[in-house]
Amino acid sequence: MGALLLATQPIDEVRQLLEIEDFFAPSHRLVYAAVLECRDLGEKPDPVTVGDLLARQGNLAKVGGQGGLLALQASAPAISNAARYAALVRERADLRNLAEVGRYITGLAETEGNLMDLQERAEEAVYNLRRRATGGSRLKTAREVVDAALAHLEVIESGGKAVAGTPSGLAVLDRVTKGFQPKTLTIIAGRPGQGKSALALTFAHHCAVHDGRPVIYRSAEVGEIETGLRMLSFESRVNGSNLKTAALTGPEWEKVTASAHKLSGVPFYLDFGPLNVAAITSQAKLGKAREGDLSMVIVDQLQCFPSTPDRRTKADYFGDLARQHKVMANELDVPVVLLAQLRRDGGSGRRPSQDDLKDSGGIEENADLVVGIWRENPENYEAKLIIMKHRSGETGEVDVAFLGKYTRFADMSKAG
């Protein structure tokens, strides 16, 4: 605080780090607010100008008068260390906020109510605390941004890859999208029965099994046993219908057993509980810290989130959920893939469009990439992936194969 009363140079840097509430002492909050106000008015904050402003507000005595301001000014050892001092204040504030959240959660535990609702409120409190603790940003120079882009290109070139992001496992899709990029939200949209979950598992399988990179898969649409059977069919190439009834030959059992052994060693993490964005973010943060890497987060699906808890319309609610998933992608620095249902009207044979997103609201607005699934004839293996929105590239459509007996998608060249 003393450094801010000595010179104006540190003020703009410090205000990027500290809010008024970060100061513990009420008197320091009053002084800091007055310093910022003087700065905004074009005045040089010092004991005289700040003291005059506080006097007009009736707060000068609350900070110890003019003598208190002079004492603060004299307490600063070096102006150049102002940012370091601010970081220490921020750290102490974060610790106080952590303690406050702990008390809040303890209070929730002593409250009668729905357990799931109480847990969600606790998770939301922790999530907000984390966003507060990690949400600081700063202006970057053009050189920093361009150097980062060049480094990114060098990584791609050294690896000999045509895909800049996380591969989907479908070469024709990756040629258009260049893979799923960090910090992006992808919406996979389709009508019921078109294969949204199968497409998501195709992505996840490629990342976890083929590339050996961790994947977090949250599903409230397809259950644990069904998903496990699909994974076994996917990997073993054993007909899923036969697998469900255990009507397998000896060789097929051997394939399934071998596939189960292989899948047990891959970094594929699944949860089939109720969907909550704060809880998913917390899981993903812990998983990324534990594994040291995270290729993507997949959430199946948007319409399976609990119904709107307030008076918002469904459109507003789902739009807000999409925004929260975009925030998650930014915070985790990974691609997030969110499945969403298209309107049923018109039948599966009608070509999907962005307007078909059920209760769309701000879903499309928050997405970086929107991919629609179109199987004009569900009995046929031919399918199209329609790239309806691509914030950083071209749109269009690609032909893929839906291998129904394995509940997976593949490039046409692998349809046999």
Verbal overview:
With 416 residues, this protein is of the alpha/beta class. Helix content is 50%, strand content 13%. It is built from 16 helices and nine strands. It has helices at residues 2-6, 9-15, 26-40, 47-57, 65-74, 82-109, 115-134, 142-159, 171-177, 196-210, 224-236, 240-244, 250-263, 277-291, 314-332, 363-366; strands at residues 185-190, 215-219, 268-271, 296-300, 336-341, 369-374, 382-390, 396-403, 408-411. The protein has a nine-stranded mixed β-sheet, sandwiched between helices. The longest helix has 28 residues, at 82-109. The model has no long low-confidence stretch (mean pLDDT 86).
Main features:
416 residues; alpha/beta; nine-stranded mixed β-sheet; 16 helices; 9 strands; 50% helix
What's the layout of helices and strands?
Layout: H1 2-6, H2 9-15, H3 26-40, H4 47-57, H5 65-74, H6 82-109, H7 115-134, H8 142-159, H9 171-177, E1 185-190, H10 196-210, E2 215-219, H11 224-236, H12 240-244, H13 250-263, E3 268-271, H14 277-291, E4 296-300, H15 314-332, E5 336-341, H16 363-366, E6 369-374, E7 382-390, E8 396-403, E9 408-411
Parallel strand pairs: 1-5, 1-6, 2-3, 2-4, 4-5
Antiparallel strand pairs: 6-7, 7-8, 8-9
Helix pairs in contact: 3-4, 4-5, 6-7, 7-14, 11-13, 14-15
